[in-house]
Amino acid sequence: MTESKIHPTEFWHHLDNGQIQCDVCPRHCTLHDGQRGLCFVRGRNGDQVVLHSYGRSSGFCIDPIEKKPLNHFLPGTPVLSFGTAGCNLTCRFCQNWDMSKSREMDKLAATASPEGIAAAAARHRCRSVAYTYNDPVVFLEYVHDTAEACRAQGIRNVAVTAGYIAPRAREFLFSNMDAANIDLKAFTDAFYKRLCGASLAPVLETLEYLKNETEVWLELTTLIIPGYNDTEAEIAGMADWVVEHLGPEVPMHFTAFHPDYKMRDVPQTPAATLTRARHIAHNRGVRYAYTGNIHDSDGGSTYCHACGHLLIQRNWYQLGNWGLTQHGLCQICGEPCAGVFESHPGDWGARRLPLPSLQMSSTAA
Questions:
Q1: How far, in Å, CA of 174 to CA of 180, rounded?
Q2: Helix (H) or strand (E) holding 302
Q3: Contact 204/164 with Cβ under 8 angstroms?
């Protein structure tokens, strides 16, 4: 049983000129009847704004939680991941452009109700559900209802988002989230305007909101693009802001760009550039900085910020040596490691399991 393709929404208001303004993100699209917003999945239908992608997905997959990436949230456990279509940014370097930039609703072949997703996650023994692939901001209501259904089953919720969202909608989105990875694309407004059609300030506001007003576990990811956001000054400035405004315990992931979408002429990020970014962040006071999208066991592993002991060894998404006590403390010096840990790590490993249908048997392995 699936939900309707068109679902009513609440974050909008009427303007004096007869248009309706969408209030989900800082873009504030103004709409005539029948018109879609820039995200394409939210649009005006008569006297209201509706969501056209409710109950429909580009697909479901069980991933290691480290792939989100989240290194300090239930390490080693499986997460049921899904997305829909559309995005409220226009990133020229999008690595998931076939889904986020899609204007073909027919590509959303998989269908599932919020209760169906929660049941599938429980059936496959997933510890969490991730709203990802495209930005959950644009399918906000589907996320919220699914997150509530998951919480009723004891399953946690993870938002993977660029954080470009308006204040009221922000509270609604994160009210049922347990963890978030925010894509901090760069640390200049010029980058956001030129390459993303957006602005930096609302993203920073989202980060401060999550850190100061919620219990959501927070990690950050920055895709390092050669020649655009890879200078030492910009990375140092970003790290300084994170330490001052969010705290030194918020993990930062520096990941490799590969040529895609509208930036196929830009070279792939050298591994040395990511290692340099990681070292800069550490030197500015960030306790947990990582490299991603490259094979770098040292850059992907977690070390105690106090004594340097290896706490969580990672080889791609496969966990190795485990140096935490059952209470999340360093086994050598007793210093706490920031994050959401259980007494033992999960054993999902690096497997990626696509789910052609949510109506599957009870065994995911």
A1: 9
A2: strand 302-303
A3: no
Comma-separated ranges of CATH 3.20.20.70 domains in the chain: 57-298+346-352
Beta bridge partners of 49: 44
Name residue, tokens 């456990």. 77
CB within 8 Å of 233: residues ≥ 6 apart = none
Q: What is the DSSP letter of 334?
A: -
Q: What are phi and psi of 69, to 5 degrees?
A: -90, 135
The single residue listed with the structure tokens 């490299």 is: 291
Q: Which two tokens stand for residue 78?
A: 């499986």
**Host H or E run for residue 112:** none
Describe the crossing of helices 201-213 and 167-174 by its angle, rounded to 10 degrees: 40
| C-alpha closest to that of 127 among 347, 357, 361 | 347
Sign of CA dihedral 247, 133, 146, 152: negative
At 146, list the tokens.
């699914």
User: Identity (one letter) of the amino acid at 96?
Assistant: N
Domain formed by 57-298+346-352, architecture: Alpha-Beta Barrel (3.20)
Q: Please give the angle made by the CA atoms of 288, 61 and 93, to the nearest 5 degrees.
A: 60
**pLDDT string in tens for the chain (365-residue length):** 344 468 999 999 999 999 999 999 999 999 999 999 999 999 999 999 999 999 988 889 999 999 999 999 999 999 999 999 899 999 999 877 666 555 555 555 578 999 999 999 999 999 999 999 999 999 999 999 999 999 999 999 999 999 999 999 999 999 999 999 999 999 999 999 999 999 999 999 999 999 999 999 999 999 999 999 999 999 999 999 999 999 999 999 999 999 988 889 999 999 999 999 999 999 999 999 999 999 999 999 999 999 999 999 999 999 999 999 999 999 999 999 999 999 999 999 999 999 987 653 333 33
Whether cis (ω within 30° of 0) applies to the bond prior to 69 is yes
152: tokens are: 């009723």
CA geometry: angle 129, 131, 134, nearest 5 deg: 155
